[in-house]
Amino acid sequence: MPIINIKQLNIKNLRKNFALEILSNRKFSFEIFFTILIIVGIPLNLYKNRFYDNSWTVGEWLISYAGGFVRRGLPGELVQFFSRKYSLSPIVLVWILSVFALLSLALIILYFCKDLFEKSFLLSQLIILAPISEDYLVRKDTLIVFLYGLSLLILKFLYKGNISWISSIFFVNFFSVIAILSHESYGIWGLPSLIFILYMFERSNKKNRIRSIFLALASLMPAFISFLLCWIYKGNTYQSLSIHQSWQSLSNILPSTGSLYELIPSGAIAAIGYESSRVYSSSLISQFNLLVFWHPGMWLLTIFLTMKFFIGVDKNPTQAAKRFILCFQLLAFLPMFLFVDIGRWIFMWLSSSALLFGFLENIFGVNMIIKNSFRLKGSRILSKIIPGFSSIKNYNRFLLFFGLPHCCWSVGRFLISNPLGFAMKNLIFYFKLLFIE
What is the full DSSP assignment across 165-215? Predict the structure, then answer.
């Protein structure tokens, strides 16, 4: 009997040690956890956005040129063309485009960044999981960040000598024009860094500063023209009504619970006819949640913490370079933070910054980025104001409980948007789907 007890004890100890070994490998477990959330979260997003009535998600994709050229109309025009020609449901096409954009963005982010950032960060609710956990997968955000990544990929091929200058400029403009005609915000945050890169390429060829700037700007002239056209043709009430009516003619293949048959449109299509965009008013600036959490203050804290996640763990040799690139891209995004949906802009800011850092590190190296960053007087101050995390364990613990609301900040949205809250949301959804409905 004593011998058997000792064996049983040894077996129990082996099991316990094995379990502890698995749990101690936190990086591996976090990657699996976030990957599972991405996989199970995609059907949840598609199910929630299956009608024309989802006017701020599906509706954003359905803005078209039915009433003439208008900003954000290119994807909707293509969806309408294929829907009419092949009698395909516009919702299914929107789903395909949304999932394709997300998976493509994930691949290009991992291509540029997998060895430069914690994979838990890249897969988390700040980057790849972000559109899924906060229900903006069925929007154009992932598409335009993916197109930005493709532009960087082309420039990498140019630098490596795998493509000619003319071909690279053509493709960068091609991807940029598609992005701008999908959402004009790309012109605000995407073009500045592309100009900077082209300027650096010209300077590497020993051209003077003025000529380098001129050539960089001239190279992206088609993209600038597209950006200008989107600001001129913002849209009007007649165009939004024409778009709405064009979809009414496809009511036999476009599911709706009622909004499709209304006289006037709603959501993103209606917003095309607004005279001004939705910006934060004085009432929103003074808004509190639960009488304690001041919205602008919580967003500033959110931005600060996301910067710490991007920078990573202390004593990492790439920290200074990451901090510089993140702040450089933040300058381009500052005008976007005046608009509603700040969480979405933070996602685009972080993901585009990760792509830009990955590109620059691959082409010029970390030391060159750090050398340029320390020419700025504020770089040393930023390193003290925005430090990294003390350890990878603390990094992953904070990441697990951190939430990034896509729109207006609230405690409820914070809890649902963090990984644990989103996991519970998925469990409830699939339980209802399988056992109640």
Answer: HHHHHHHHHHHHHHHHHH-TTHHHHTHHHHHHHHHHHHHHTT--HHHHHHH
